[in-house]
Amino acid sequence: MGGIFSQQAHDTTPSASVEPDSKPKKKICCACPETKKARDECIVENGEAACEKLIEAHKICLRAEGFNV
């Protein structure tokens, strides 16, 4: 049974190595404040359906910052 535990430890190690390769340097909540503000204000005032262009602009900005959205 000792082999099973050591195998499980090896199985979890590669997933931990994925994070350091990630590109974002900021938290997603702090990235793209200009597009986030415009998007949020539009959604509150007009509803999500009316703000698709601002939503997409914010997603583009987040992707440029390295987020996978």
UniProtKB/TrEMBL annotation:
Q: Where does Cu cation bind?
A: 29-30
Q: Where is this region: Disordered?
A: 1-26
* Gene Ontology CC terms, in alphabetical order: mitochondrial intermembrane space
* InterPro entries (alphabetical): Cys_alpha_HP_mot_SF, Cyt_c_oxidase_Cu-chaperone
Q: Where in the cell is it found?
A: Mitochondrion intermembrane space
| GO MF | copper chaperone activity; copper ion binding
Which keywords does the record carry?
A: Chaperone, Copper, Disulfide bond, Metal-binding, Mitochondrion
**Polar residues composition bias: residue spans:** 1-16
Q: Which family does it belong to?
A: Belongs to the COX17 family.
Protein name per Swiss-Prot or TrEMBL: Cytochrome c oxidase copper chaperone
What is the organism of origin for this protein?
Erythranthe guttata
